[in-house]
Amino acid sequence: MNRQTKADILRAGIAAPSADNSQPWRFAWSGDDLDLRIDASRSGLVSDTRFVLSDLAAGACLENLIVQGRSLGYAADLQTFPQHDDELWVARIRWRHDPECDQVEPLAGAIQQRHTDRRFPWGGPVTSDTQTRLNTQALQIPGPRLYWPQTPPERKAALKVIRQAETLRFRSPTLHAELFSSIRFAVGWHSVCEEGLAPATLAVEPPMRPLFQMLRRPAMMSMLNRLGAASVLGWRSAWLPIRLSPGLCLLVIPSKARADVLAGGRALQRVWLEATLDGLSVQPYAAAGVLGLGFVSIEPAFQGALSRLGSALCELCESGYGLVFLRLGYARSAPSDRSGRRAPASFGDFP
Ligand SMILES: Cc1cc2nc3c(=O)[nH]c(=O)nc-3n(C[C@H](O)[C@H](O)[C@H](O)COP(=O)(O)O)c2cc1C
């Protein structure tokens, strides 16, 4: 494998999504073998207990690497979690030149276009043909599947659980601190940044921006929470945009095992790339599923709310664990601001 091919593959990996744009990946080459590791300095916050968010991001990155490799004529022999006592080592990929891999891999064309869009409202519909295409991509990875709340009661139940989780992110001081620590207010409202969330990508309306920025102070958040601010924020950040979007689905995994979360990340990425090829906009909502898994420990007063999230999700998707909701629809234009990425050399062994 030449240097250019290795660099092209890694550039695809780096374009993957990650919670709060944390980009928690490290790469190391030994010959043509590529190791994907979780970056200890960019993982392990409270919502990332047991590396759930990092494993999802690692899965998405892994899928980009594999799809890009295939489009360049290389098949990937994959070993996941190769060493049990090294919890940061997610995968080793052994690349094999494969003459059958040299046809165009359609998903590869979407890797650099895919992005998160937090604006609304979006047009529709998300047709059953499109749903089938997205389902097919999810099922390419053994384990995960998509659940589509179809009937009004199902959609209502899904909206309720997402709103409750998003509200909790503003009510719990621990989750509030984590949420605001990822927002880079220092870059202002008109620029983007290479790591973390630029305010410009959050779709906060201009008149609301000064208030939103003030909410990062715990004392201010706690005072406004006495007036119901968290609930309004949960409504504005989740309930309203989802209500005004034609599509909603939930990524479901069969167990809480890390291998299944990683597979969930791979499936998430395939679905998102296919959605991008279809011209769909996507916003993930991960709080309900991740908090509902039961690994995260926050203030005792909110611990009951976490377990209720888990039960509500179990009821919704019948079997398995709902992990990430995806809001889908057709935006009139691409967002003008997209999250940036760090310089390739900062991910480790960049050829
Ligand atoms: C596991 C995971 C969880 C995410 N959770 C959310 C979320 O709850 N809300 C949201 O708006 N974006 C969420 N995102 C999107 C990320 O913030 C986004 O991927 C990152 O900022 C990079 O931006 P990009 O997708 O435009 O490349 C999530 C992404 C991943 C991979």
Characterize this entry briefly.
This protein is α+β, with helices and mostly antiparallel strands and 351 residues long.
Could you explain the architecture of this structure?
The chain has 351 residues and is α+β, with helices and mostly antiparallel strands. It folds into 2 domains: 3-114, NADH Oxidase (3-Layer(aba) Sandwich); 128-329, NADH Oxidase. The protein has 11 helices and 8 strands. The chain has helices at 3-14, 52-71, 128-139, 152-171, 173-181, 209-214, 218-225, 229-243, 258-277, 287-292, 300-317, and strands at residues 25-30, 33-38, 74-80, 89-97, 145-147, 247-253, 281-285, 321-329. The strands form 2 sheets. Strands 1-2-4-3 form a 4-stranded antiparallel β-sheet, with helices on one face. The protein has a 4-stranded antiparallel β-sheet with strand order 5-6-8-7, sandwiched between helices. α4 runs antiparallel to α11 (300-317). The protein is globular, with a radius of gyration of 20 Å. The termini are close together. Flavin mononucleotide (FMN) binds next to α2 and β7. Residues 17-21, 53, 56-57, 60, 115-116, 118, 197, 283-287, 324, 338-339 line the site of flavin mononucleotide.
